[in-house]
Amino acid sequence: MSEQRTELDKLGEFGLIEHLTKNFKNTQSSTRLGIGDDAAVLSISKSQSQLISTDMLIEGVHFNLMYMPLKHLGYKAVAVNVSDICAMNGVAEQITVSIAVSNRFPVEALEELYDGIHTACKVYNVDLIGGDTSSSLSGLTISITAIGRVKKDAITYRSGAKEHDLLVVTGDLGAAYVGLQVLEREKEVYNTNPNIQPDLDGHDYIIERQLKPEARVDVVKFLKELDVKPTAMIDISDGLASEVLHICKSSKVGCHIYDEKLPIDGQTSMTAIEFNLDPNTCAMNGGEDYELLFTISQSDYEKIKGNPHMTVIGHITDEKAGRYYVDKNGAAIELTAQGWNHFED
Ligand code: ADP
Ligand code: MG
After folding, report:
1. Helix (H) or strand (E) run with residue 70 in it
2. Which of 114, 142, 256, 288 shows its CA 20 to 30 Å from the CA of 331?
3. Ligand 1 in reach of 35 Cβ (< 6 A)
4. What is the pLDDT of residue 340?
5. Single pTM value for the model
6. Which residues contact 340 (CB under 8 A, 6 or more apart)?
7. Ligand 1 proximity of 18 Cβ (cutoff 6 Å)
8. Residue nearest atom 22 of ligand 1, based on CA coordinates
9. Other Cβ atoms within 10 Å of 34 Cβ, number
10. 174 CA distance to ligand 1 centroid (A)?
11. Position in ligand 1 atom list of the atom nearest CA 37
12. 103 Cα–ligand 1 center, Å
């Protein structure tokens, strides 16, 4: 190590990954794609590829056990990994689970965690095939790797978006973030006075979106049935703005997103306003929705038109035209990612 000291927040999460891995070159012919997409792509036969993706959840960073039941945590940890396989248009088949746990947790707590993992394995039809277990000095860490499969001609990378393609998002956005605000508020109330019961009435949908997100395996199926192959796809873990920028950067294109097209549930909007938050900002930057964002060629528009699971929110432009968020008055604001940056307080 040199004398020099560079703070992590100078690079940010993506800058750090790029910096640390820039000197690695793939040498195996089976490695079709390594770092840089939702999952790595390995060639396993003439027509099929294997997909591999890893995600880690850390206590105090990604979850708070004061309001996150361990059963839900187990379920969520599987769902977010399956979501990355969906983002490649693939089907998850196996997972490995690694945990580091402090002696603060009794066996019963870990049974709860594994109950949630078990439920998710049944719902997503994946086999638990291994993992690792370690003690930790403090807190709980859970890291899951999902392994999936996709036909080679069906793989959707982040890099395939073309000028004039339509930008499509599934489900609705911002709910998980606003749900988190409700949970955080009730945590504060509880910390001040543990005798007050949490007031979660009327927030059931958005709280469920935070505590029990689902991977959109149904969308992968719908796309196949509709005979639509997205030109690019990514899942929304860090917020729409951040994910659109990933697609634009990988595909070397620009985009226009229209704020009035953003799909936002009524409960999300009402609660956001209660918290003095702009619902559109929550949809753009909230994160943890685990919906899919994809681009399709205009010729496929008729196939998805009117589909209740999919909303066209904008289109792809030439790279030189820039990346913009257009508001109701037609004002264009340059897109910046304000998703989670784990190295900032
Ligand atoms: P996602 O949000 O889809 O989970 P990430 O933003 O976590 O993806 O990761 C982006 C890419 O960087 C992925 O290809 C991932 O495998 C890779 N990556 C992340 N962290 C590391 C690391 N520490 N070393 C090598 N590759 C990494
Ligand atoms: Mg992803």
Report:
1. helix 70-86
2. 288
3. yes
4. 46
5. 0.94
6. 238, 239, 287
7. no
8. 17
9. 14
10. 23
11. 14
12. 30
Closest CA to 295 of 247, 327, 239, 224: 247
pLDDT at 337: 66
What pLDDT is attached to residue 194? 76
345 CB contacts (<8 Å, ≥6 apart)?
Answer: none
283 Cβ contact partners less than 8 Å away, ≥ 6 residues apart: 173, 174, 240, 262, 263, 264, 268
pLDDT value of residue 103? 93
Long-range contacts of 14-17 (CB under 8 A, 24+ apart): 16/343
Closest CA to 158 of 247, 262, 45: 247
Q: Whose CA is nearest to atom 21 of ligand 1?
A: 17
Which residue's alpha carbon is at the smallest distance from atom 27 of ligand 1?
17
Find the helix or strand (DSSP H, E) in which 10 lies.
Answer: helix 8-21
Is the Cβ atom of 12 under 6 angstroms away from ligand 1?
no
Spatial distance between the Cα atoms of 291 and 300, rounded to a whole number of angstroms: 20
Q: H-helix or E-strand containing 86?
A: helix 70-86
Any ligand 1 atom below 6 A from CB of 21? yes
Residues forming beta bridges with residue 325, ordered by sequence position = 257, 333
Provide the b/e sequence for 169-181 (b: ≥16 CB within 10 Å): bbbbbbbbbbbbb
| Rounded-to-integer distance, Cα 285 and Cα 14, Å | 16
Mean pLDDT by groups of 10 residues along the chain of 345 residues: 80 89 95 96 96 96 92 97 98 98 95 98 98 95 98 97 98 97 88 75 92 97 97 96 96 97 97 96 94 98 96 97 92 76 47
Domains of the chain, earliest start first: 8-154 (3.30.1330.10), 158-334 (3.90.650.10)
